[in-house]
Amino acid sequence: MRVLIVDDEPLAQTALARILGSRQDVDSFDCAADSVEALDKLRKNPCDVLLLDINMPEVSGIELVDRLKENGLPLPSIVFVTAYEQHAIAAFEKQAVDYVLKPFSADRIGEALNRAFRRAAGERASQLLKVLPALQRSVRPQPDRIAIKAKGRILFIDPSEIVSVHAEGNYVLLQKSSGSYLLRESISEMASKLQSYGFIRIHRSVLVNGSYVEEIHPLLTGEYGLRIRGGKHFTVTRTYKKNLKSLAEFWVGKESPLVE
Q1: Which of residues 92 and 180 earns the better pLDDT score?
Q2: How many whole angstroms separate alpha carbon 137 and alpha carbon 158?
């Protein structure tokens, strides 16, 4: 676990640092003399547990918690370490794990750390459960075929055979090199479903398969012309010209061919 001590009293800092240094479950720890310094450190290096004094110059420990939330920074498990018991209610309203009064013993701080580490580990597990479905989707092999419903049948087609997709009212037209399919679907939904297959949106009503693009060139209107394999041309509107950057892993030349 990573711990940050925030206390303007050097003796308290030293005592807490000594306790942390003796624990094998502490990966690293740091110290801040006030809330301003702590906020700067937490912006650069988030921690798992905060050992936080309350009465400090300029910005109190309670106010530091509020500022972390206001800045959208990760909120560590918080143990308030203070000489003033009257702040306990306010501390627990900030979802503090524990409230330790000075002067403290090593055993009392140890109990608070154990409690804070359990909460931090639980929150890590909770966050992992939230992102796990997305991680699983990202490592799952992508199917090499997609299923479409056309004329009462379910057809399986290779997305690499689709050249472009065009909006046609409440329908979309999937255009292949030879033949096409008219489907009841929105162009936005198709853009989302086909993005991972290399399709880019170049117009509010047009998607193209990036693997078919052979050339792009600027137009006097501020738009771009796009030529695909076979010689067909499209116009890339200003709204979607930023999507052209995804056509290549990198661009060679002193000047970028695309103007922001």
Answers
A1: 180
A2: 20
